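Schema walkthrough. Field components (list of strings):
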Amino acid sequence: MTKTRTKALALMLGAGIALSGICAAFPAVTVDGNALDTSTQMTYPFETREEAFRYAPTFTGVSETTQDLHWEFIQVFLDDATADFSKAKYVAIQMRIEQGNPGFTVGIHDASRNRYMTVTDGNKAYFLSEDGTIQEMSMLNTELAFKQGMSGTLLLPMDQLSWQEGKTGDLTKINSVYFTHNSQYHAGWKISVGDVGIYEGEPDATAIRKLADCSQAERAKSKYHVDSVNPDCMKMPSESGIVEPEPPEMAYPFRTGEEADTWAAVWQGPVNGDSSQNWQTLTVKFDQATVDFSEASYLIIQYYGMVSAPGITFGLENKGARYSVGAAEADGKPVYFMGENDAASVKAANVTNGAVTAPGANKLGAMIIPMDSMAWQSGEVANRDLTAIDTLVLTTNSQYNYNYRIMIGEIGLYTGEAGSGTFTKLLDLSSDKSDKFAVTSDLEANRGSLSFIEADAVRETMGDATIDIKGEGKTDSSFSEEGGTTGNVLINGSYGSLKVVKDSYDEDAMQLTATGITGDGYTAFTLSDGEDIDWANRKGVSFWARNDSDAEVSFNFEIDCKVASGARSRFNILQGNRYWLYDVNTGKTTIYMTRPTATLPAGFEGWVRIPFSAFERASWSSGVSKEEFMGEGSVVAYLGISVSAASYLNQSFSINNIGAYTTTPQFSSSFVDAGGKTIPELLGLI
Amino acid sequence: MKKKNLLAIFYALAMSIAIGTMAACAPSDGPGGENPGGENPGGENPGGETTVYGLPVAERGHYINNSDLFEDDGTRWLFYTTNETSGEEDNVIAVRKAVFEEGADKGWAYGEETIALRGGDGSWDEYIGSASVVKGSFEYGDTEYGWLMAYCGTSQAGETQFSIGLAVAQSPDGAWTKVGTQPIIAFDEANTGSAATAVGNYAPSLVNYDKESGIRLFYTFADSYGHFAKFVDIDASDLDAPVLSGEAMVPNNGEIAGGDTVAMFPNADFAYDATGGTFYAVKDYSPTPSQAPAFARRIQLLSIAEEELYTTDLGEGWAGIRTWDNTDTPDGMYERLYGACIVSDAYGHTDGASGAEIIYNVCMLEADTDDYLFTQNLMTFEIDYQ
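Field assembly_structure (string):
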C-alpha cells in the first residue's frame, strides 16, 4: 500500500508561517507551569555514550539552500499508532546534531495532522546533555536553533507549545514528533533522532514514558517519514554500508524549448484532502496499443511538478497487472530526474512506502525510472508480462496528497546501458492526444481534474502578450449584470454601460462608461469570472485602450489572484507607479504615472502595459501576498474594471485584447536604442 | 503689471503636499547675516575696482533663485532668476560670468549681471524663470547656435499652468533667441488634475546626452497628484523641426526622502555621468507651508543607474547620497533650503568619481522680515559623490 504524507498540507501550512513571520498562539491545554530550568538536576532518560543512537536514523538536509521554498520535514512516528499527551508536561526527544547549525520548528502531530509546536517567540525549550547539564533554548520565528555537536535530549515543555494557526487538535491522539524548516534558509546539516518519550510531571518526580524506542534495535523504516529535496535525507543505520548507484547519464530524450510542453496533460489534484483513503489515478495510453518493456532499462516520463510534490506511485499495466514502484521490493530503490536544460540526471527520490516524492522535480524535465526500481505489484500472474504493457498508471492517495499539480507529457523507454542505449518514444505529443489520458478516483465526489497545455500552443497571442479577454464575439448583453437593462451593468452600486465598439484595427472592443453615481460611487464591470486565466510569471497586464472622452480618465483593474493553496485575494493598482502607453496615432511611447490608477490621457489610443509591481493587495483582502501575486501556479480567478463614477461620470473609454506580457519594454529616443524592445516590436506590430 | 516670480510654484506645492512642522530658528549673525548681501553687497563700488569673490549676492530689493551653474573651459556661467526692478517681482533670467583667480582669499570672481531672457508680453511665457543651459550644436532658422536654454513660463498671472520653452544663443551671455512661439513642453489642461490651480511643467534641467544635439530635458510636472520628475529626449539638431521622444516619468523608488506617501521628486536638477552610466539629481523636499515662504527646508542629492530610467522593472531605484537641512547652513540660520542645482560641465555632465558642488537657495522667514522674498540668495555645498 502506498503511504505518503501530505506534501501539499505541509507547504500550505508552512507558507503561512513564512509569510506572516508569526503564528497566532492558541494555548490549547491547561497545564501547570513547568519547573524546569538550567539548574535542574535530573536523570538522563535515554541511553548514553556508545549505546546512544546505535539504532537511530540520521537525517541530512540539502547541501545548499534552495531557490524555491520547500519545507523540509522529518516525522518520527510513535511505536503505537497514537499516544495520549494530554497529561504530558514535557516531550523528550533524543537527538544529536552531527553537522551544521540548523534551526527547526519542532512539535507533535495528532492523528488528524494538527500540529502542536514551537510557535511563540521567546517561549522556552531545554536541551539536556548526557552529562546532566541543561541549556535553555528560546523560540524565534517558530524555530529552535541547534548547534553542531549538541547531543542529548530536547525537552519541550508542553505549556510552551501551541497549536498551529489557531487550529485545535487532539492531544489524546498524538502519533508523531516532527521537525521542519524552510530549505531556503537552512542547509548543510545532519542530525540523528533517537528515542521519544514524555514526562507527565516534573522529571524524576515522574518517570519517562518511552513512546518511540530505538534503544535496542532499529525500528521499521516506515516509522519515519521525510519530505526533503535531498532524496537521501534519511539513512537507517542498516543502510550505512550501501553503495549508491550513479545516476544514469544520457541525452535528454524529449522536446525542449517553448513548445516542449505542448499537448502535455496537467493533472490537478483535488483542492481538499479526504478524511479517508481516496486513490486518485491518472492513466495514459501509448501510441501503440501495447509496448514491449521486457528489454527496457528505464521508463522515462516527461514530468513537471508544477505545484507541490505529491507521492506518486508510477506503474505499468498489462491487462490490469501492475509493474510498479508500489511493489514492496521497490522500496528504497532510486528514481532519477533530469531537467530539460540539465546536462545530467540526479536522484529525485528513493522509492518510499511505494511512492516517489520528488520535490526537486519542480521544473520541466524527464522522470527516469529504472525498471529495477519497479516490480510486479498486483494483478493476475498470467498477465504479469512486460512484453505487452498497455497503460502507464500514476496513483496517489488524496487522503494525504491533494491540491498538487503535475504535468505529464511524452513517454518513452530506454533500452541498454545509459548513454549507449536506445531511447524509444512511446507517446508522441506533437499533436493533440488528450484522449490518451484519463483521471479517476475512488470517490467521484473528490476527484482531480485534467487539462492540456494547448493554451500556449493555441492561446491567442500578440507578440509577447497573451490575449485572454477581448471584445470579439461579444454583444452589448454579454457582460454580467446585476441590474439595469440590457447592456447596462450595475455592480457595487453605481450605474454603467458597456457597449461593443470598434478598436484601432476595426475589431470589436468594449466601451465602458460610468453613467450614474449610487452606492459606493464606483461602477464595476466584470470581464472574467472563474476562468482561471494563467498570467503566472509574466510581467504585467497588456491591453489595447482608447480614451473616448475629452479629458484624462482613470480606471482600475480588480484582479483576484488565486494561488495553489486555494487562497485568493483582490489586487488593484495604486497611485504613483510607472507604466507604458504606446499611442498608435503618434507612434510615441510614454512612461506614464498611475494617476491614481490606470490612466488614459485625453486623445490616447493604443497599447497599455502596466507592470504587476504597480498592483497591491486591497486593504480589505487577505490570503495572497504581493510576493505570490502572479507567481508560479497562480491564476486570475476574477478580472473586473472599476471606475469612479463620481470622478469620471460619462467619460467613456474602450478596451480590448486584455492579456499579460512577458517582456518589459524599453524606453527609446533618437539617441537611446530600445534593443528591439519597443512596444510595437514586442507586439509584432512592426 | 509687473511680472511675478516663481514663488507661486512653491505656494502651489504647499497647497497640495503633506508637510511637517518646523521649529522656528531665529536668524543670527553669520555668513550672510540677516541680509546676506549686506547693505551694499557689491561693496562701495559694485562692479568697479573692488572684486568680490564667491557667489553673487542679490542687491537690496532683489532676489536670486533657481540657479544653473556650469563650467566651460575654465569659465563658469551662472544663470538664475531674479527681479529686474527693485521691490517688484518681475522675473527675468540673468547670467553672470566667472573666472577663477588663484590666491589667498580669492576664488571665482563673478562679473556683471546680464539679462539673458525676458518674458514675452501677451505670450505663453509672459512670466518666466528657472533657466537651464547646455552647450551643443543646434540649428535654428538656418543659423548654427552653440548654446541651448530651457526655461519655464506661463501666461497666467497667478503662476499656474507652466510650460517649458527653448532659446538659443551663440554665447552664454547672449544674445538669446527664443525658439518658436510655442513651448516645447506645453501645459496640457486636458491631462492635468485640477487644471486651474495646477503648477504644470517647471524646473527644466537640460543634459546634452551625446554632447552634440541629443538633449535630455528633465522637468517637474505638478498638479493635484503631486510633483514628479519627467524627461523627454530631443533631437535638437534642427530646432525648426525638433524630434521629441515620448515623455517618461523618472523612477520614484529607492531612497527618496521627502515625507510623502507616494515618493515625489519636486524641483530637481540633474547631471549625467556618462562614464559611470549614472544620473545624479538634487531635489527639494516637499515644502513647508507652516511658515511663509512655503519653500522646502531640505534638499537631497541622489543617484540612479541610467538603465533604470528606461524600464519599469523595479531596480534599486535612487540611492540617497546626502540630505541637507538648516543645520548645514551657516550657524544653522536658514530654515529654507530649496531650488538646488549640481555644478556640471557645459553639457550637463558630471564626473561621478569626483566631488560635486551644489548651489542652493536660502531664504529668511516671513516671521523674521516682511521682505523675506527679497532675501533669496545662493549658497553652496561641496560633497564627494562616493
